[in-house]
Amino acid sequence: MTTIFTCKDQFDDMMTCIYDAWASRLGHSNIRLKAEPVGNLELFCEYRHVDSDPEKTASVIRSIQKKISPYAYSMIYKAAMSDQEDKLDAIYRFVVAGFHYGASVTDYLQEPVVMRIFELSRKVANEAHYHREFIRFANMEHRILVSHIEPKANVLTLVAPHFADRLPSENWMIIDDTRNLAIVHPADCDYYLTDLSQKEMDRLSQKTNDPFVELWKGFFENIGIKERRNPKCQRNMLPLWYRKHMPEFH
Amino acid sequence: METAACKMTLQEKLNILADAAKYDVACTSSGSSRRGKKGYLGNAVSSGICHSFSSDGRCISLLKILFTNECIFDCKYCLNRSSNDQPRATFTPEEVCTLVTEFYRRNYIEGLFLSSGIMKSPTYTMEQMYQAVYLLRTKYKFNGYIHVKAIPGAPEELIARMGYLADRMSVNIELPTTEGLSKLAPHKKPENLVKPLRQIQDGITSHRLAIGKDPQMERSNSSKYLPHTIFRENPYRRLPSGSDPVSVHLPASARCQAHFVPAGQSTQMIIGATGENDLQLLSTTQKLYQMYDLKRVFFSAYVPLNEDALLPAIGTAPPLLREHRLYQADWLLRYYGFHAEELLSPERPNFNILLDPKCDWALRHLEYFPVEINRASYADLLRVPGIGTKSAGRIVKSRRGGLLDFQHLKKIGVVLKRAKYFITCNGKMMHRIPIKEDFITRQLIRTDSKKNWEIEHPQTYRQLSLFDDFHFQSEITMEDSHKSILGQL
Fold first, then answer.
1. Which of A24, B259, B342, B374 has its CA 20 to 30 A from that of B272?
2. Per-residue pLDDT tens over the stretch B41-53
3. Which A positions 77-106 lie with beta carbon below 8 A of chain B?
4. Total Cβ atoms within 10 A of residue A222
5. Number of domains making up chain B
């Protein structure tokens, strides 16, 4: 019989889940891990929900960084932000392999478990990079910059350090519309992650009347060379689903 | 004229001067890495960041504008030449600064790309540009990326001062040969173009030596494993650099604060306006990299804009595939350790239209193949078509942990449809493939023909219709399609 450990889709919970799954001593091949929502239940499986525990979380993170490498930890973190169903199990298998091979495990792409983590983290890192490029801030009252995104992976914490370094003395926030989460950065202070209520979301999605949006649209129109028009290349570089919140495409 | 210019809105100016700048290709924001500072706006990321892609599929990274298009020069190929009847505009330095900072805050751009037509004199133009950039760095506290064109003929002191404010500077060579230049750009003297190139290079070298770095600019990280790059085997090198560039770390207090053109310099050549062949273009490119230690050489497929007996007629399609082949070759020079003489020869001075330069080279050198994936050196792996710097690096690292097979290669990112003719894994090829030039050529041409056609014809398909006149020049807009649905046409 297989035991399936489940937990909330949050990084801390996932790390605790890995701890408990390991400590259960049921054998790696007899267990699976899954982030919630669980979806369809399987027959002949026992489900165990795990709640986050700061000590266990810290201990897992510490062992990954020490016994594998900080680079492996960053791969695991990115993979944990993914929207793929098998991510938590993939992380667990990778950690098992990592404790065996040590720091060089991240190079061994011929191992299926390493390849999977590599793919997951690359996908999330690419999406985060796209958002660094294509996030657009709207200038609200009192020079507050507000941006809305609808990412597939949970990229907020991956893009925030970039903007904190870039706009240290501006008030800005990036809102994840699908998860109702936001990064808030008051000028000259540290940023933080917070949940938003529906009322706050509505207030922050108001349209603004910004002259620079029109200037930008004019620039965008004029910078393209008509003799070289190539919408297919444009779609390749900037897929359509990113354009929803980009003013130059509306 | 003066009053008309004053009444122009910022929007009109921006439209005119962005339109005038669009033929400049160098819109990269790479090569500079700088952390943000409290109270300042912006940072610089070494890989560069593209913020949007225009309708022609080119990246928009910087606010690419001319300071003015009121040019006194009359270069034959240029839209802004003085003999053309064009709407003209000039920014004020303050306007440039507001646009840059406000766009930057909204994450529209990565910084400023400032070029200019020549108004009054090169010196006056450069002064105006300097003022804009100086204000941007001081009053507006802008810490992002700035790329400035050095105006040939401007005084050395101005160019040197600009170098301390900008991340990258560039001088456009425009045409690869002096004959072409004297024919098409009679106001531009070759020695005037080369002088600022040399001056900026000297500035960069002395700054690098002063902060304890190797006099040569850094190249891609992987190129240190390549023994024969054009940068190592450089007959034009003026200062010796160690075979392994060693940086001396100075204490922070000893380092000078202002950096001089940290992202290096670049240049641009027009292709297809005059009769140069690819070998001339690529040799010039290689020479520029070696003599002036440029970071990039850009190519721009010539779009005919002016009626002139010396130039291709208006309506001639820009040579996009040729431009693509040159960029592919440029990458082979900078990242793959190829030399221009290896890719082209006086007997075959132009690139093969049907095959990319690396496949073309491999087919003429089948004696090097097949390459054994599990044993070949990094440099040999890079010479295989279908293996790039990333996949070669992954192969070299992962094979320490065990043997690699074709399934692994596919996941690692090797393009097997090209590579399979040139490699073995554990002594076996993927299929039974004869290593014969004509067989492999035939196979590879079939793989690439569709892609090549698309590069040359980027905007072709259109629904056949009874009512459209196919010689109509105007484009079909959104409104037209609405009208046609509503039956108003």
1. B342
2. 999 999 999 999 9
3. 101, 104
4. 18
5. 3
pLDDT for position B289: 94
Strand partners of residue B168:
B147
What is the per-residue pLDDT across A83-140, written as a single tens digit (0 to 9) for each?
999 999 999 999 999 999 999 999 999 999 999 999 999 999 999 999 999 999 999 8
A136 touches chain B (CB under 8 A): yes
B14 and B73 belong to one structural domain: yes
Touching check for A144 and chain B: CB below 8 Å? no
Q: Do A231 and B303 touch (CB under 8 A)?
A: no
Q: Is the CB of A248 less than 8 angstroms away from the CB of B50? A: no
Both B34 and B107 in one domain: the answer is yes
The pTM (predicted TM-score) of the whole model is: 0.89
CA A214 to each of CA A183, A211, A247, B32: distance values in angstroms, whole numbers, following the listed order: 27, 5, 9, 30
The residue ranges of every structural domain in chain A are 2-125, 131-249
Domain edge (last residue) among B303, B323, B346: B346
Q: Do B55 and A230 touch (CB under 8 A)?
A: yes
For residues B334-353, average pLDDT: 93
| Listed residue (B283, B199, B175, B198) closest to B235, CA to CA | B283
Does residue A168 sit at the B interface (CB-CB below 8 Å)? yes
Mean pLDDT of chain A: 94
**One domain for residues B401 and B426:** yes
Is residue B193 located within the same domain as residue B300?
yes
- Spatial CA neighbour of A128 closest among A242, A4, A2: A242
A228/B301 Cβ within 8 A: yes
Q: Which domain holds residue B13?
A: 1-168
Residue of B nearest to A247 (CA): B108
- Sign for the pseudo-dihedral over CA of A121, A124, A126, A132: negative
Do B236 and B303 share a domain, yes or no?
Answer: yes
Mean pLDDT of B96-104: 96
> Is B111 touching A (CB cutoff 8 A)?
no
- In a domain, residue B463? The reply is no
Let me know whether B322 and B183 are in one domain. yes
3-state helix, strand and coil shares in percent for chain A, rounded to the nearest 5: 55, 15, 30
Q: Most B CBs within 10 Å: which of A114, A159, A208, A222, as the mutation test of the B interface?
A: A222
Q: Are residues B178 and B151 in the same domain?
A: no
Most B CBs within 10 Å: which of A148, A159, A163, A166, as the mutation test of the B interface?
A166
User: Average of pLDDT values for B413-426?
Assistant: 94
CB-CB neighbors (< 8 A) of B50 in chain A: 133, 237
Mean of pLDDT values over A192-208: 88
Residues B271 and B387 in one domain: no
Best A210, A219, A245 member to test B by mutation, with max B CBs in 10 Å, is A219
Nearest residue to A136 (alpha-carbon basis) of A249, A22, A246: A246
Cβ pair B284, B176 in contact under 8 A: yes
Inform me whether the C-beta atom of residue B305 falls under 8 Å from chain A C-beta atoms.
Answer: no
- The chain B residue lying nearest A225, using CA atoms, is B56
Note whether B426 contacts A: Cβ–Cβ < 8 A. Answer: no
Any idea what the Cα angle at residue B154 is, between residues B151 and B159, rounded to 5°?
80
How many CA atoms lie less than 13 Å away from B385 in the CB half-sphere? 26
Q: Mean of the pLDDT values across residues B63-85? A: 90
